[in-house]
Design brief:
Helices cover 55% and strands 10% of the residues. It is built from 20 helices and 12 strands.
Amino acid sequence: MVANGYLARMPAPNPSPVPHAELGAQAEATARALAHRYNAVAVSRLAAFIALAIALAGAWAVPGPLPLLGVGAALAAFLLLALWHGSIDDRRQAALARIEYHRRGEDRVRGIWAHGQDDGTSFAPRDHPYAHDLDVVGPRGLFALLNSGASAAGRARLAALLLDDGLPLDTARPAAVLDLASRHAWRAELAAAAREAGVAGDDPLATWLAGPHRVPALAWRVLVQVLRVSAPLAVVAVGWWWGLPTGFLALLATAALLTPLNLLAVRFQGELGDADVARRALLGEAERLTVVARLAEATEPTVALLGASAHGAHIAARTLAAALDRLAQRRNPLWSMIASPLLQAEWSNLARLQGWARMHAKERPAWRAALAEAEASACLATYVAEQGGCWPIWRVDGAPITASALAHPLLPRTRRIGNDLALASGQALLLTGANASGKSTFLRACGLAWVLARAGATVPAESCHLRPARLATVMRVGDDLAAGSSRFQAEVAALARAFARVDHAGDPLVVLLDEILAGTNSHERHLGTRAVLIALRVQVAALLITTHDLALCALADEDPGSLLLAHFADSAAADGNDLAFDYRLRPGATRSTNALRVMRAAGLPIPD
């Protein structure tokens, strides 16, 4: 249901876990069967080639119609087997891609997902308000965990959902993600189809499709059609009546005469770039559109709309890929110097390309956007199916965050420790505790809850209520030698950027600060942090801050109800060398100060 323009969704049952092992074994069986078939067809192709060589030798030695028919039959058999061979290899490669998808899925479930794929860093500038601080990007970041197999366009859409907190909240996406989360085999197919999509995000045909296309005059088109029919018939007639050697000479002479006319069509086509690259991208696009089009029969409206948007588009994409395949044949000298001029193939390609542009050029951006949306939703659905969690409930007013057993999504599930948090409206959270006690991790867990919820995924918690918000963080700040900036200067600049986001349009701001102003003296650090805390608390939807400055806790007494104090406790071992943590959030300020004890046990000259 929708309340005040936002989704107020009760937690829905999570789908069954992804059966990666079972589906991976099925893909392996399919790959083995296709490999055997591939080898059998390869042997048949060799036999057909030998038969073609024998038929050519016979036609050369004994001119006549029957030997020529034998050559044609052998050539047809060889070409058909070549097409079949390619089809089997495509299916085998798809099965291998599904095997790799399920292998990586098993790794993700075990907490391993740094496979060297796109980690999202290219989508987030260095001064992004929260991406780097919250580990949204990076080799072990949230984007790398979610990127279960999307093309460049799908990855860009996924990055936008995670990194652009100014996008309107999509209340329909969670329902679509939940529907797709139960389609395990479908998501594997979509990820496998993305293997042809390439790494670059640019569309190799965008410039050509958007540009004007020169149309040849009617007289040229009529002349070409006459030559396309008469020239091959003349060559066949010569070979039929005067023998194969004479026919071959006629073929060469006719091709030479018609080459200039064929090259004129190339000029009319314009600059299409690398035809092989564009063809591979289109075939991958067509394959993914075919998979997405199957969603048209889904009962969930948003999912069905995605399927409908891809319906018919995959046929158009394959049509253009076939035309580009003929362009890629230019690299074959026998085709470009003999067959193409004789058949005036470039004029035929020109007609196909221009006809396709007239019919589909304006439609293509829409179906590519739908395809990117489907891939991004599939990645979110895979995360939901593999990681579980609860569906967050949005509310437009009141407490900014209330969560039960909230954990960090990038920790292995077996090591996660969830904590409860209820932050009232207008209240700031001040976290204290020793180093490595869990303060920064919990701060990031809170920030990532907003990131995941806004993207349309589950949150690693038993329950979670959130107020729609944008994010700003000051957490990982250090010296920048290249920019000539000290740590303190970098922190001040980051804080200034956070304050600047307060007045931006959109949802209210949530600010996360982790031990800020550590680069200056303790007195000014206290005064600066105190001033920032007081100012931000009244300007933002929520302020969460960690600190070792216990004097800041006095603000809770000065303005009761304005500051929620919480801490992570620690206990020192008997020898004082180590601190032990249980990572449980407790109310109030920390009462443990074991730092001097640990330093003393390490042999430092710390007096008792």
